[in-house]
Amino acid sequence: MNKYTNVDEYKPFYPFRNGQFNTIYTALFRKPLSPSWQRARVETDDGDFFDIDQLFSNNKNLAILLHGLEGSSSSQYMLGLSSCLHQDSYDVIAVNHRSCSGEMNRLKTMYNSGFTHDLHHLISQYESNYTSIFIIGFSLGGNIVLKYVNDAVYPISPKIKRVVGVSVPIDLSGSLQEIIKPKNFLYDRMFKKSLMDKLKQKHKQFPEAVPIHKIDEVKTLWHIDEFFTGPMHGYDGAEHYYASCSALPFLVNTRIPTLLINAQDDPFLSGACYPYRFSDDHPYFSLLAPKYGGHVGFYSSSRFFWHEKQIVAFLNAEK
Question: Of 204, 220, 245, which residue constitutes the final position of a domain?
Answer without folding.
Answer: 245
